[in-house]
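User: I'm curious what two different proteins look like when written out as structure tokens. Can you demonstrate?

Assistant: Sure. I'll show them one after the other, since each token string lines up with its own sequence. Here's the first protein:
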Amino acid sequence: MIGAMLAAPNKRAGSARQNEEHERFMEVDLNHLWLIVSACFVFFMQAGFVCYEVGFIQSKNVISVAIENILTFIITTLVFSFLGFALMFGPGPWGLFGGHYWLLNNLAQAHNSLGFVFVFFELMFAGTAVTIVSGSMSERTRLLPLLLAAVILAGFIYPLFGHWVWGDLFLNQPAWLKNLGFMDFAGATVVHATAGWVSLAGIIVVGPRKDKWDEEGKIKKLGRSNIPFAALGTFILWFSWFGFNGGSLLEFNDRIGLILLNTNFSAAAGVVGAILTTRFFIRDHSYMEAIFAGALGGLVAITASSNYLEPLAAVMVGFISGSVVVLAGLLLEKLGLDDAVGAVPIHGFGGAAGTILLAFFASPQFLGGQSRLLKFFVQLLGVTVNFVWSFGLGLLMFYLIKKRFGLRVTEEEEEKGLNIVEFGDIYSWQEYLKITHYENLTQDLSGKIQQQNQLLQKQAKLLAETQEHERVKLARDLHDGVGQSLAALKLQLGLIANKVRMEEKDPALSEQVERTVRLTTETIEEIRGVLFNLKPGILERKGLKSAIEEILRTLGKTGEIRFEFSLSAEMPPWEDTAVLNLYRVIQECLANILKHAQATEVKLHFSLLRSDLYLFQISDNGRGFNPDEVHTGLGLSSMQERLKMLGGKLRIVTAESRGTSILMEVPYEG
């Protein structure tokens, strides 16, 4: 009885120990399962990158990009697993580099419960970094140099910097940047910024794609094979990022939900930030590009801090990073750097922005006792070290590869497309021949049309100049002939009037002679007006502004219409022919108002639309008209032809009983 009573507690104690061990093993198994699932999510990123990159490049290079991604992942699998992993996570001195686990030997002695599961998970991260670099240099880079770069990136550049930040994730050992307080939860700097800065080095050394910039230095939009495919790739990457960030916790607990939500919030806010930045600062860019760049930029940025933020802070990080990515893309264009898929703005600048923003938005309990200012400097130090290391070695690597093996294809090969050059794709060759034949035909046709248009423009210009010469000749003839005769007639009539007044003493006859003199004077004034319209001398002497002011003074003498004339910017120095045509167009507008508008008020306002475009606006408060009912009247055809010669546009805003506004946009060389 007593023995049974003593045995019972021991049995219960043994059962409790078994339960604890069972729970511990269940917890370990659950962590392993979560890490494996997350690693598979991250592997699915490869499919996302293929879709995204293939969608954003030209059809003649899609096979090349897809195959490059497969081959670079194969290289990463072998090189990182057997060399890079040891360098990144193996034991080493002073947190500088690792070792010991070469070829994955001695891994079982690590006393780490994650073991080979951890290797599999980290391999997916390395694969992501290498894939990003190959995408940025698409459409002009040979395959072999990219594969050599993949070896160096997966085996040395990426794992060595990774050891400085994450060297303690597998073993309890120092990692010098981590020990300073540098924080990068899931790899915004370690994975993405490293890949982004190596990509920057690559696009500098390889140079831009053929025809990316025209002869005047303006950027040209090259063809894209399939934007819906790129959208699919974006959704795949977005989905895979849940494993990227969620798995980085290395265990399954109640913080997973917050991490996944923060990831999603940042991506959505990144799109908003990118679109608003494009709307207010870069209006000549597409919102479509902003949507893609903003989503991925937000995902990259939150990678640094998804475990350390509250949801509203995640929104702010995403919003700011979306703006940074768009502005960084503009900076690259200004510098003449050609990134085929936006890897540098998204991963380089987006990763750096997210890492630095952590200092300002992370919850205080995660700052490790450092003030936000000190944390900012630590984060900035880590980002700077990453840039110097990744960009510096990347520049050296691609320079040496270019010197030893060559880096890019020839112009002829680039024109054909890498599908043909690298992989001899017969279908692409057939498409190339068809497209080339079509382009030759369209270029010939376009050339003929352009020649005809130029000929018509020359003829129209010649016709206008001929008209002006005839007007000048007519003005000279009127002045020298009719004008002189009328002046002589007025003089003779004046003498007769004086004689009648002095000798005849006939009031009726005297009044009649006086009326004849006044009529002659009025006729002379009318002739002068005609002469001014035919040959406005003030236009040559003082310019367009003074000539317009003279017209308005003349028209305003009647008192029936009030004129207002204002300039918000001085008129550009057009050549004489352009000035004369503009004068005639404005003259025609004012004549139409006098004849047809029944207006009491006319406003002329001239302004600068942009640095190379000037706006002439003439508005009246008259009766207006229905523009659909007016085809050739009101001198509109003449006005349109004159503006067309100058490369300008005419737009009429009017409605019956609501007045008329005539807008003339005229380009000029700034």
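Here's a second, unrelated protein for contrast:
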Amino acid sequence: MKFLIKPIIDKYLENKSYEYVNYSIDYPPEAVFGDYSTNLAMVLAKKIKQNPINIAQDFKAFCENSEFSNKFKIKIEKPGFINFFLTNETISKEFLTLSQKKELYFKLKDIPEKKIQIEFVSANPTGPLHIGHGRGAAIGDSLARILSFLGYNVVKEYYINDAGYQMHMLGFSTFLRYKELLGQKIEFPQDAYQGEYIKDIARDLIKTYQDNLLSMDNAIDICLDKAKNTIMNDILHDMENFKVTFDVFFSESSLFQNNEVEHTIELLKSKGFTYEKDGALWLKTTQFNDDKDRVLIKQDGKYTYLSSDIAYHKNKFLKRGFDMVIDIWGSDHHGYVARLKAALEALGIDSKKLIILLVQFVNLIQENNKISMSTRKATYIELKELIKEIGTDAARFIFVSKSINSHLDIDISLLKKKSMDNPVYYIQYAHARIMSILEKSNCNNELDESMIKLLQETEEINLIKSLLQFKEYLHDSAKTLEPYLITKSLLMISEKLHQFYNKHKVIGENKDLSCARVGLIKTVAFVLALGLSLIGIQAKNKM
């Protein structure tokens, strides 16, 4: 348990009057090297110019003269790794606490009263959600579930980008298809929206208006309203099927209607952070570590996307009072981060309060070919199509199965398999296997200290350790904002469960041992179900 190791390391550094060093506590690659390992001696050696082995031995002696020796045994490996082995007493005590406290065992203590907003998906209402949006949705929703479970006050928000040129082009594209379906000859621009869904919307317009739009001055506006509403309804339906809900929907156009964009620009002007050049209004973002200044109002008098984004984030921090804002964007927006943070600093808002997660691209593997995506060219795989192929659970799992910073390849054929090769099936089957055993059990007593002492087999101990480590993976997931750590832990628990099951009978002739093992797998089922719920996946009772 890292939370037991860190205090003794920090106490050692304080006792020796050493400056703090950036050490790590990790899981060793092999069990022979312990349950945990730290590089403290190596990083400290560079500071104090001593042999890391000598430092490690000194640390070991320090620990052995304290109560820490009851919790861990320490071994030292060259060139200076300090390896920690959990004592049976520590394992039993922690596992008993887990089995008794259940959810409370995993909660964070002393949560600061922070109001956190997570803004995710926020796909332009110009086309269906594709699998790239799906990854952002799964990550955002999972993060919200994880942080909320731990005790944070979390608000999930969808920002509707319903202003600007892209919306005009959506209305124009729909109107052109409307005219085309009525038999008129049209020229369809390359930057217009190409998808079949535009034609479907145009067909609905014909049912409502027949050919009357051809003579109406506001025809494009009517087409835009119809297209935007239809697409947003489809997006919400897809999100509902994907087990994603939002607390707030915020419209970009409302920022203009309420003059928030204009007021934000005026505030930046009053602070002296704007200037005019070449007929445009510029923001001095270079004063705040951006690589160049940015345009707020173009030569034609139109606001840039940055202007409304600054107003939107001003609204988040200054009007609605969020203490932390987490924006989840596609990785193609990486160049936008510095300018937005610079704008916040210009407004007097601490840019560290804004965390921007850049989610890497998703590739769908179909017949050994990767499919690239573009909304305007309509070369994408819709999220609903993926869900139809592999199901919501498999889709959500695979989307959060790797670090946000890693590209993700989705192998549809693997995720459709009902076999142990499919990671989602592997975990859900572990839970279902336990439920099947529990149906045959008549052990209803709760685990106690005497029962836990009966669990001495290597596979039992390894299984218990994996349950205790879930707490660390969960807390690390919240700290690093990486939901994939949950999937990593669930796979580990499932692996240890299957190893235990394949070697030992849960229900046997020894009733006390049987009930102890039933108590063990009950706790496993609880942790598996909890972990799956935190990434929006159902724990199956039967497979």
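A detail about the second structure: The chain has 21 helices and 15 strands.
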